[in-house]
Amino acid sequence: MSAAEMIETAQTISGYWTDERIMIRDTAREFTLNEVLPIANRLDPEKGDIPDELIEKMGEMGYFGILIPENLGGLGLGYFEYCVVAEQLARGWMSVSSIIARGNHFYRSIPAATDEERAEKTRLMAQGKYLGAFSMSEPSVGSDVAAIACRAVEDGDDWVVTGNKYWCTFADRADFLHVICRTDTDPDTPRWQGLTGVAFEKPRGEFPEGCSGAPIPKIGYHGWRTYELAFDNARTPKYASVGKQGGAFKSVASALEGARAHTAARSIGLAQGALEDAMAYAKEREQFGRAIEKFQSIRFKIATMATEIEAARQLLYHVCNEIDSGRRCDTEAAMVKYYAAEMAERVTSEALQILGGAGYTTLHAVERYWRDARLTKIFEGSSEIQQRIISDSLLGK
Questions:
Q1: N or C end: fewer C-beta atoms under 10 angstroms in the chain?
Q2: What is the residue range of 49's domain?
Q3: What is the CA radius of gyration of the chain?
Q4: Active site residue: 228, 293, 367, 380, which one?
Q5: Residues 312 and 335 in one domain
Q6: Catalytic (active site) residue 35
Q7: Average pLDDT for consecutive 10-residue bins of the chain (397 residues)?
Q8: Which of 204, 225, 247 is where one domain is finished?
């Protein structure tokens, strides 16, 4: 029995699993192995973009609308199903697993003048035909979100935005940008209360008028580009505000449980892919007259890797269940994001070690999993930020 089959068997008898969830998992795995993985193996070494055709197929599968309510064209499912799909997609290419957030997490950010327009755009979003990009970080602002300096000033019926943003992935190909700006500069107002979300609608392949972008060179997370943006008196209608004026900090913070669960799912998918590839290689690679899977050092590595993956997976299921039940789990979400990200770097590194010199080439996907796993310790709150959240919960601030 393969590692994937053993895990699927264990999951099937778990209390979390229904027939529908098993079908969703198995369908996503088949889609990944048949559609995502071959494209990733071909395009990632040349830093190519996720093809539009693959995005269209993902839209047909419903992957952009897992969290979107059924009455708005989505599947109306929960974070458990969302993370199950995300894990499987990350087993192929983390960028593909990430792009589904450009629908699922963005339907409340859609710029629209009327409820009817918003509903129609949401239905398109669920099909992958109307997607967003999120811009919060700045050249001097990362974890300290309250320090955001990019300004949005009211001018009649518009917001006028000026300032620089950093780390905006998918900015070029998205249909709109959700930008966190400072709208209150009163020194008596707490920094975190002065932030507002502002949306810019734009054509795909372009930036909004008054905004320019330059791609940031990255060592991984290929498949799409990440940009530094410069806003110079860029205008957008005030109806394109996202949430309440001054409420962006709380809005972003409230979404972090789900975002961190998503990152944990991506981390687990990367580690699972690396484990499966390492096991397959160990069966085929011979040294000293026998397959290296026969050596105890290799067997113990694989045992440890599989154990750590499953531990992260079970913690993720608990967190997803808590989110879907409406219970607060910010500490547990920080735990699973922290543990899964750290685990993914360890496991993918061990997989590369099992492949030896072959693992250090772009001829095998393991090096991609390794590079992408390193990023999971940084985005959606670094490992150090997660440790602070967890320790503050246990020991007090």
A1: C
A2: 3-126
A3: 21
A4: 380
A5: yes
A6: no
A7: 60 78 98 98 97 98 98 98 98 98 95 96 98 96 92 97 98 98 90 95 97 98 98 97 94 92 98 98 97 98 98 98 96 98 98 97 97 96 96 96
A8: 247
